[in-house]
């Protein structure tokens, strides 16, 4: 089972701007308060994408927003993008 809060902790290691850190804090609180880690997998993935969307499309990959390509992205797309960002910063990927 995926630990969605741990993903945010990993992203915090590579996040430098205040606005990005704020987006991560909001996502963390939402995922924690809604107990996403205890949900069935498919529901948890949907909620993770919901809470991570601001960070992902405005902080991590703003080009997706500018090109209007962010709609329809699913959990696997988010995880692939997160792993790419972690690798770029010399951090290990999330399995």
Explain this structure.
The longest helix is centred in the middle third of the chain and has 20 residues, at 41-60. This protein is an all-alpha fold. α1 packs antiparallel against α2 (18-33). It has helices at residues 4-12, 18-33, 41-60, 62-66, 75-88. The chain has one domain. The protein is built from 5 helices and no strands.
Q: Quick summary of this structure?
A:
The chain is built from 5 helices and no strands. It has 95 residues and is mostly helical.
Poorly predicted runs are none
Helix content: 55-70%
Sheet bearing the most strands, described?
none
Rg value: 12 Å
Number of structural units classed as domains: 1
User: How many alpha or pi helices?
Assistant: 5
Total E-strand runs: 0
Distance from N terminus to C terminus (CA atoms, Å) equals 11 Å
Mean pLDDT score: 94
What's the order of the H and E elements? HHHHH
Strand-pairing-aware structural class = mainly alpha
Bin the strand percentage: under 5%
Large-scale geometry:
globular
Strand-helix topology:
Blueprint: H1 4-12, H2 18-33, H3 41-60, H4 62-66, H5 75-88
Tags for this model:
about 100 residues; mainly alpha; 5 helices
